[in-house]
Design goal:
There is one protein chain. The protein is α/β, with parallel strands linked by helices and 360 residues long. The protein has a domain of 241 residues: 3-Layer(aba) Sandwich (Rossmann fold). The strands form three sheets. Strands 3-2-1-4-5-6-10 form a seven-stranded parallel β-sheet, sandwiched between helices. A three-stranded mixed β-sheet has the order 7-9-11. The chain has a two-stranded parallel sheet with strand order 8-12. α5 links the parallel β5 and β6. α1 packs across α7, α2 crosses α4 and α4 runs parallel beside α5. Bound molecules: nicotinamide-adenine-dinucleotide and thymidine-5'-diphosphate (TYD). Thymidine-5'-diphosphate binds next to α6 and β8.
């Protein structure tokens, strides 16, 4: 049996990861530790909440006592840290919570696992700690040099408070590996898309607004480029790195799928219009709005290392993944409504209040 402790498992990528592990057919146990901020939604995990292989703790990764108690009680072989504040626009409004959660929370978690896992001889047995990081730590690439990519050797040069906090966390993770011998791994992935993404991010926000005939706000000139990966391919890469990655290493994750924001928005308009058979959903909904402060121009991952060393490559072409994503959002209009109205935040009390669910 393989035991995982996943933090931030009620968020977008974390919930996809939890669901994919439990559906994998392998002998796994998954403990999910989530503070249930605005981005954590237990409705994502409704299908597994009664699964005996799954357990939820509502706890904050910054809380040393709670985290130590959970790790002692559950003794996971692996810790995968997804928990973070993840939205760049929010980091521009309120950088402090990004420093506190993403840096302070990570350092706290590293201390807790180090104390819990260290053996008398200084070794850490079969344990592994994986930090889910982002390509945004590398900064921004120019638009006029399409042959430039982020490689694992690219110096970190973050620009937003979000990416600065993630880069800082990465340095701490590496330091705990180098200084204490903690068996750490880091993945740096490009932009994800797919089911359960909070509709403050580009793709779900544009799908929602298009369905409602509301304006689609495109920042600046719309020519900023992001490298999009279907979330399941990211989850597969994380699990592969956890099992087969070389300890202490960083692995970039991406599939050479770069698109400008305006291209993404126009694709969404076309597909939503087709699927709803609604010609009123057209490019006239696009509004160019004030640019994001410090807006990174282009992200582009070179995934050569994970492909060569671990044989990973993405399985979902963008044309297929975007249709699947749009169809998921169209079929889950109620989920979107509850997320945007905030109603989902009462779900924990409704679903777990009477069960005396774990709360650290
Ligand atoms: P998300 O915002 O959807 O989810 C974050 C989760 O963390 C939520 O469930 C939230 O409740 C939880 N959380 C926040 N603060 C917490 C705390 N102090 N203690 C415990 N739980 C806490 O984020 P996401 O998009 O799923 O991203 C997950 C991770 O992947 C993040 O670390 C992010 O930096 C990284 N990442 C995201 C992308 C992307 O495109 N979304 C790409 C690369 C890397
Ligand atoms: P986002 O989904 O916030 O991801 P990130 O900033 O982490 O890459 O944004 C993706 C791109 O889309 C980014 O260049 C900003 C842009 N964007 C818009 O143009 N309009 C929007 O309403 C949002 C949310 C993002």
């Amino acid at each position: 049996m393989e035991s995982y402790l996943v933090t931030g498992g009620a968020g977008f990528i974390g919930s996809n990861f939890v669901l994919s592990l439990l559906a994998s057919g392998r002998d796994v146990r998954v403990v999910n530790v989530d503070a249930l901020t605005y981005a954590g939604n237990l409705e994502n995990l409704a299908s597994v909440e009664d699964d005996p292989r799954y357990r939820l703790y509502q706890a904050d990764i910054r809380d040393a006592r709670a985290m130590a108690e959970i790790i002692a009680a559950e003794n996971p072989r692996y810790v995968v840290n997804f928990a973070a504040e993840s939205h760049v626009d929010r980091s521009i409004e309120d950088p402090g919570i990004f420093e506190s959660t993403n840096v302070g929370g990570t350092v706290n978690l590293l201390n807790v696992v180090k104390s819990a896992w260290e053996e008398p001889d200084g070794g850490f047995g079969e344990h592994r700690y994986l930090q889910v990081s982002t390509d945004e730590v590398y900064g921004s690439l120019p638009l006029d040099d399409p042959s430039a990519y982020f490689r694992e050797t690219t110096p970190l040069s973050p620009h937003s408070p979000y990416s600065a906090s993630k880069a800082s966390a990465d340095f701490f993770v590496r330091a705990y590996g180098d200084t204490f011998g903690l068996p750490v791994l880091i993945t740096r992935c490009s932009n994800n898309y797919g089911p359960y993404q909070f509709p403050e991010k580009l793709i779900p926000l544009m799908i929602r607004n298009a369905c409602r005939h509301e304006p689609l706000p495109v920042y600046g000139d719309g020519l900023n480029v992001r490298d999009w990966l279907y979330v399941e391919d990211h989850c597969t890469a994380i699990d592969l790195v956890l099992h087969e990655g070389r300890i202490g290493e960083v692995y970039n994750v991406g599939g050479h799928n770069e698109r400008s924001n305006i291209e993404i928005v126009k694709t969404i308009i076309r597909l939503v219009s087709e699927r709803l058979d609604d010609p009123a959903i057209d490019d006239s909904l696009i509004r160019f709005v004030e640019d994001r402060k410090g807006h990174d121009r282009r992200y582009g991952i070179d995934p050569a290392k994970i492909t060569a060393e671990l044989g990973w490559s993405p399985e979902t072409p963008f044309e297929e993944g975007i249709v699947r994503t749009i169809d998921w959002y169209l079929a889950h209009a109620e989920w979107v409504e509850r997320v945007t109205s905030g109603a989902y935040q009462t779900y924990y009390e409704e679903m777990y209040g009477h069960r005396g669910a774990a709360r650290a």
